[in-house]
Amino acid sequence: MTKAERIDRIATILILLLALAVVGLVITVLGLILIPGISHISWHFLTSSSQSFETGGGIFDQLFNSFYLVVLTLLISVPLALGAAIYLNEYAKQNWFTDSLRLAIEVLSSLPSIVIGLFGYLVFVLKWGLDFSLLAGALVLTILNLPLLTRTSETALSQVPNLQRQAGLGLGMAKWQVILKIVLPAALPGILTGAILSAGRIFGEAAALIYTAGQSTITVNYQDWNPFSPTSFLNPMRPAETLAVHIWKLNTEGLIPDASAVSSGAAAVLVLTILLFNLGARLIGHLISKRLEK
C-alpha cells in the first residue's frame, strides 16, 4: 500500500467516524425524548383538553393550536417569500442593492427567536393592538421563517434550466407568463419541500410565541365556525398556547401533579410530528419530481 493510499484510507475512516458520531448523537437525543414519552401517548391524551391543577389532562387544544398556527403562518409567509425569490432570481440585477438584500436576509436568519419574539410583542401586540393572539404569533413566525423560505424558493427557481425560459420567450410568451407557466411548475418540488420544512420549524417554535400567541388557552367551541366569535376555533384573534409553549410552561411551572408525564408525552408528540413533516417534505418532493418527469 502506497503512502497516498494509506492517507486516503485514514481520511475515509475519520470521515466515517465523524458521520457515525453525528448519527449517534441524533439517535441519542431522539431516544432520550421518545423512550420516556411514547408510553404516555394514548388516544385520550391526544383528544382531551389540558388540566390546570388536576391529573389526567391531554394536549388536544395545544395540538390544534399548533397546526392552526402552521397553516396561518404559511398563508402569510409563502406568498411573501415566493415573491421575494422571484424578484431576486428572475428580475433583479446583480448589484449592490441585491447584495444588500441578500445580506439582510442572512442577518435576519441569524437573529435569535427570543429577540424576534420581543419585537413582535412590542410591535404586533402593543403597537398594533393585536394582543396575545394567533395572528400576532403568525406574524412573528413569518419574520422568523422568511429567510428560510426565501432561500429555498430562490434555490429551487435557480435550478430551472435557462433553456426552458428561452423556449417560452421564443414562443412569444411574456416574462411573467414564462415564470407562471414554466418556471414555477418546474420549481414546485423544491418550493414545497422548503415550505414543509418551514412548517416543522413553526410547529416546534416556543420562544417567539410566549410573547405573541400567549401562554393561555381559552375554552374553545369547536362547533362554532364563525371566525369572529371570541370562542370559535377559527378566530385568529384569540390567545392560543401551542404545544411547544405548553411543554415549556409545564417544565417551568409544573402546577399539575403529573406535569412530568404530560411534558414527556407532549415532547414525544412534538418530535414525532416534526419528523413526519421532514419525511413528508421528502416524499412530496420525490412524488412531484417523478410526475413532472413523465
TrEMBL record:
Q: Where are the transmembrane segments?
A: 12-35, 67-89, 101-126, 132-149, 182-203, 261-284
- Leader sequence range is none
Its record classes its membrane topology as:
Multi-pass membrane protein
- InterPro entries, per database record: MetI-like, MetI-like_sf, Phosphate_PstA
Question: Which species does this protein come from?
Answer: Limosilactobacillus alvi
PROSITE patterns cross-referenced by the UniProt entry: ABC_TM1
Keyword Kinase included in the entry's annotation: no
- The superkingdom of the source organism is Bacteria
Name the encoding gene, please.
pstA
Q: Name the keywords, alphabetized.
A: Cell membrane, Membrane, Transmembrane, Transmembrane helix, Transport
Q: What is this protein called?
A: Phosphate transport system permease protein PstA
Among CDD domains, the record links this protein to:
TM_PBP2 (cd06261)
Residue ranges constituting the ABC transmembrane type-1 domain according to the UniProt record? 63-281
